[in-house]
Amino acid sequence: MIRALYIFAIILFFPLLLLQSTLVPLISIVGVIPDLILILLVYFTLRMGQIHGTVLGFIYGFLLDMITGNILGSAMIAKTLSGFVTGYFYNENKLDIYFKSVVFSLIVLLSATIDSFIFSFFSSVELEKSILLRFFEQGMFPGIYTAVISLILVMFHPRRNPF
Amino acid sequence: MLRFISSVWWNFKEYIILILLLVISFISLSLNQNPAIKKVRAIAFGSFAASTAILSDIVNIAKVKSENERLREINAELMLQVNKLREYGVVNENLRKMIGLKDTLNYPLIPALTVSKSFTIAQGTVTLNAGADNGVKPGMPVINEKGLVGIVYATSKDFSIAKTLKNFELKLVVKDERSRVDGVLKWNGEDLVIVNVPKTYDLEPGDRIICSELSSIVSLPIPIGVVVGLQNVETGIFNSIKIKPYADFSRIENVFVIGVIESKQKNDLELNFFKR
């Protein structure tokens, strides 16, 4: 079962990355774009558990760094930590509550904020900018946008478990 | 001992795995310049770029009409400018002949289309549908009709990836076209700025900024942007000059790669001068 989830997670990664790099920049707001890969990571982490979520985050980060030209290691660190933090919310008995309510978006908000904030340290050399300002500009705003997009998954999540 | 290790593993396996993966990630940070890694990355994005090219074509069809209208208007303006420049060129050619200077201004242009973009707040890259087979090489500048867009970073057979000016890794020597003052341009996460410019240097809002011939990356006089403001004016002895780029990075589609890279011979000669 876990192996099947891993395979689905890797298979779904590539079309989502395709959308992320072609269509998502069209809906950017002041340079801020949502992270569809992170939504996928949170979804599978809540299904598979903390360890598998951490490993999946590592894999996603590695693939992202290889394909998109980021510094190798930057997305790996950010996504690994996001998967680990998301894993704290893993609970087999609460999957229905997570996926059919706003709770999922709140978890995405937390993970996306952490992911964007950590990733920003590899992207910017403006160290004199205050941490709080950086947290809001490069952590919170992308996190909020990603959480809003994740509401779409909540609205259209099937009643029966697809996996 | 084994029982202790087993106990530690079962109690802390999540943290052990996290630390292990983070260590691997940090080791990867140091491997960015490794030639083997660069080759693998070029193959990875080249393969992926082939599929983004298909989706990008579908998306671009929807924007073709408005793009055509915009391009027609630009064509008309350029036609008038070209006519004026043609006259200047004739006069210039005559003057050059008179003083015997060599003509150096024939740059090969390789047309390309952006097939995907990766824009974080401070690390912008675009993937182009022209690669090594089209003559593109790392280090070549990428321009559009407005000015410099970025520099080619890596190539595969049919695609290449370019870092835009909005990328903290790109630092460029630039020149004020009016006062001929040089400075170093970089992206600070929010704005393009020329940093550490002495207050005595003559730069004013409205000045055109072009690539400097002193640059070891792009020494062609390609327009970059316009000065929009000065920062740190009252304190210290340096200003930071804020630049508004001519190119609109959120709308980059049709670009040209200038088929010129810096002469190794020239760079070696200049380095030898400083080694004496």
Considering the chains and any ligands shown, give keywords for the structure.
heterodimer, A: about 160 residues, 7 helices, about 0% strand, B: about 280 residues, alpha+beta, six-stranded antiparallel beta barrel
How does the SSE layout of this entry go?
The complex is a heterodimer of chains A (163) and B (276).
Chain A: H1 2-22, H2 36-48, H3 50-68, H4 74-87, H5 95-99, H6 103-120, H7 131-156
Chain B: H1 2-29, H2 35-99, E1 109-119, E2 123-128, E3 141-143, E4 148-155, E5 160-167, E6 172-176, E7 182-187, E8 192-198, E9 208-211, E10 223-231, E11 238-245, E12 254-258, H3 264-275
Antiparallel strand pairs in B: 1-2, 1-12, 2-5, 3-4, 3-12, 4-5, 6-7, 6-9, 7-8, 8-11, 9-10, 10-11
Structure description:
The complex is a heterodimer of chains A (163) and B (276). In chain A, 71% of the residues lie in helices and 0% in strands. Chain A is an all-alpha fold and 163 residues long. In chain A, helix 2 runs antiparallel to helix 3, helix 2 (36-48) packs across helix 6 and helix 4 (74-87) packs antiparallel against helix 6. The longest helix of chain A is centred in the C-terminal third of the chain and has 26 residues, at 131-156. The termini of chain A are close together. Chain B has 276 residues and is an alpha+beta fold. Helices cover 38% and strands 29% of the residues of chain B. In chain B, the strands form two sheets. A six-stranded antiparallel barrel of chain B has the order 1-2-5-4-3-12. A six-stranded antiparallel barrel of chain B has the order 6-7-8-11-10-9. The radius of gyration of chain B is 23 Å and the shape is globular. Classes of the chains: A mainly alpha (163), B alpha+beta (276). Chains A and B meet through helix 1, helix 3 and helix 4 of A and helix 1, helix 2, strand 1 and strand 2 of B.
